[in-house]
Design a protein that fits this description.
Largest sheet: 4 strands, parallel
Shape: globular
Order of helices and strands: HHHEHHEHHEHEEHE
Helix content: 25-40%
Oligomer: single chain
Radius of gyration: 17 Å
Number of helices: 9
Strand content: 5-15%
Length: 239
């Protein structure tokens, strides 16, 4: 049901976008300069806050030298690694907010193209979008992770399991909670309906902050048999 809702609203919004593009020349969303058939010109794309190379090999937290951060050494997460495109900073954060809360589905293409620069598809068997609770999906009209996942799946040929995971409880938004309450907020809220025995799974999501969502999803996916769980994240919040 969640995928049907996202399919309907996604197709409706994207049809409007394509109609508008036939009437107007393409301009860069950030500088309004000519961008050909892309949403951002090459200069603005290159100037986005790409995640620095020096980051934790597990959670992608920026650190002074490549390696594993102290938090992951002290308490290793259930996920195996995170591959992120951007630091969550301007203007990447503004683009994500316009996509997620403003319904500008065109920005999913920017997010997918950015991820394709950073991920290692050869290490992945299946893509799973981070699920939304039914109430949140109805309010928003689409699952932002699913729409990005469709594009990445199409580009890489890796199967996308649309309904592999479900969010079975409607919890408060993670962004509204203090960090120390986020893991508890998500405990036991995901269910996996597929056998993933021996598979390497990539979870696609737009933003990683504390890692609580990815951690709980990894727990759920590994209980379903996944051997390895990676996070393919558009933007990583530095802390």
């Amino acid at each position: 049901m969640t995928s049907l809702l996202s399919n309907f609203f996604g197709k409706f919004l994207n049809s409007g976008l394509k109609f508008g593009q036939t009437l107007l020349p393409q301009q860069c969303l950030l500088c309004a300069g000519a961008s050909g058939d892309a949403l951002l010109c090459a200069t603005c794309m290159d100037d986005l806050p790409w995640l620095p190379d020096s980051h934790c090999a597990i959670c992608a937290q920026p650190i002074p030298q490549p390696g594993v951060c102290g938090a992951c050494l002290k308490k290793p997460p259930r996920f195996d690694d995170v591959q992120a495109a951007f630091a969550y900073a301007f203007p990447a954060d503004a683009l994500i907010q316009a996509y997620k809360y403003g319904g500008n589905l065109a920005i999913a293409r920017i997010a997918a193209d950015a991820l394709l620069r950073k991920i290692t598809p050869a290490r992945c068997d299946l893509i799973v979008p981070a699920p939304l609770a039914r109430k949140r999906l109805i309010e928003r009209g689409f699952n932002q992770a699913l729409e990005i996942g469709r594009l990445v799946s199409r580009a890489t040929g890796i199967p996308l399991l649309v309904d592999a995971c479900r969010k079975v409880a409607d919890t408060p938004p993670q962004a509204s909670l203090p960090w120390d309450a986020r893991a508890k907020n998500l405990r036991g809220v995901f269910a996996c309906d597929h056998s993933l025995n021996g598979k390497s799974v990539a979870v696609i999501d737009d933003v990683l902050t504390s890692g609580a969502t990815l951690n709980e999803l990894a727990r759920c996916l590994k209980r379903a048999g996944a051997e390895r769980v990676s996070g393919w994240i558009v933007a990583r919040v530095a802390h």
